[in-house]
Write a structure and sequence with these properties.
Blueprint (H helix, E strand, L loop, with lengths): L2 H10 L6 E6 L4 E6 L9 E9 L5 E10 L6 H19 L6 H20 L5 E9 L5 E5 L3 E6 L2 E4 L6 H5 L25 E4 L7 E5 L1 H4 L7 H8 L3 H14 L6 E7 L14 E6 L2 E6 L6 H10 L4 E3 L10 H4 L9 H13 L6 E5 L6
Antiparallel strand pairs: 1-2, 2-11, 3-4, 3-12, 4-5, 5-6, 6-9, 7-8, 7-10, 10-11, 12-13, 13-15, 14-15
């Protein structure tokens, strides 16, 4: 496993609250997740990532994964799927490939990451949306999590469930046996991800959801009405999660809402290889390349996010927690500070560094 994948998988597997919704303000996006009423573990993973290509253009990607129940380690599989997908996207950012190539390579990398760990005994569904400056929006799906498009207050389902019922256009509720997955991330070499690009001038919002939310669409038009009425992405995400619980909360529910627009942020990144990631429970920053780069550190300080936690090196092994997160409070003496500084200087230049933010943490 590559260092970035390892750090992302560890971060995504941290202990979290039962429910949370977060706005990603500069993108006009929102991400939310809820454990539901019945489940004791949230095996969904939902994130929004911002990064920069080698040519300086910004990209953003939304990813939602749902660990498969009845198989091994659903939550861990979902974390591996998302981390493998994002790590591949970051690699593609160094090349001028098409968005479809980015998404296809990322889906296959996610599949490989899960398969190499569980050899087909564990898996996850995976949907994603990619927004690149000057490029047509692109989406990808594997499994029965879904991608919707909201335009002019109308909700359109873009993805087709990888089930017999989905392929035949039937309701899985009416034929439960036909609701079993035909493919999933982690199944191995036979995976065939669905990747499509939209019209470049199209406006609206991508809405990515797990089945804990989209099952609502099987019974009524409530989901459509909420999306059409709630123009604010954060409000929309919160209402979808609440509705899922009001209707029984039989499964984990997660949603990411992200606009199709690709307007550049007023603050530009200093170089490629720098990403910001947000899930519904917190924010993280990952620096790739020279860890000692003053420009990256200055950029981080300019974000002025509270309660900063800084790692003093990259960890390729998830078990070495102390290498991934070291809080500033642990620096209690001048000798320990000097020691940490010498360790940081000896790190390989291309290893990533994580700065994690927990704005909801009590001081």
């Amino acid at each position: 496993m590559k260092p970035l994948e390892a750090q992302l998988a560890y971060w995504l597997s941290r202990q979290t609250a039962r429910t949370s919704v977060r706005r990603v303000g500069q993108l006009g996006a929102a991400v939310g997740s809820d454990i539901g009423v019945v489940r004791t573990e949230n095996q969904d993973r939902a994130v929004v990532v911002q990064g920069w290509e080698a040519n300086g253009g910004r990209f953003s990607v939304a990813v939602v994964a749902d660990g498969i129940g009845g198989m091994r380690a659903g939550g861990a599989c979902a974390s591996l799927a998302v981390s493998g997908f994002i790590a591949s996207i970051c690699e593609s950012a160094n090349f001028r490939d098409s968005s479809s190539d980015w998404m296809m390579n990322a889906a296959l990398s996610a599949n490989e990451a899960v398969y190499n760990k569980y050899y087909g005994d564990g898996g996850a569904t995976l949907v994603a949306a990619l927004i690149r400056h000057g490029k047509a929006p692109c989406w990808m799906s594997v499994g029965d999590s879904r991608v919707y498009l909201e335009t002019e207050q109308k909700l359109q389902k873009l993805s087709t469930d990888d089930t017999i019922a989905g392929q035949l256009g039937r309701n899985a509720i009416e034929s439960p046996e036909q609701g079993r997955l035909l493919q999933f991330v982690g199944m191995g070499s036979d995976l065939q991800p669905h990747v499509h690009e939209l019209e470049s001038k199209l406006s609206g919002r991508f809405i990515l959801v797990t089945d804990g939310i989209h099952y609502l669409s099987k019974y009524s038009s409530c989901m459509d009405k909420i999306v059409s009425i709630a123009s604010d992405s954060g409000v929309c995400a919160k209402r979808l999660l609440e509705l899922s619980n009001w209707c029984g909360g039989h499964d984990n529910a997660s949603v990411v809402i992200i606009p199709l627009s690709d307007e550049e942020d007023s603050i530009s990144a200093p170089s490629a290889g720098f990403i910001e990631i947000s899930d519904s429970f917190g924010d993280g920053q990952f620096f790739l390349g020279d860890l000692a780069s003053s420009s990256l550190r200055n950029y981080s300080k300019s974000r002025a996010l509270p309660n900063k936690t800084l790692s003093n090196g990259a960890a390729g092994d998830l078990s070495e927690k102390e290498k991934v997160v070291t809080t500033a409070k642990k620096v209690r003496s001048k000798n320990s500070a000097v020691k940490k500084s010498s360790i940081a200087k000896s790190n390989v230049a291309n290893e990533p560094q994580l700065i994690m933010e927990f704005p909801n943490k009590r001081k």
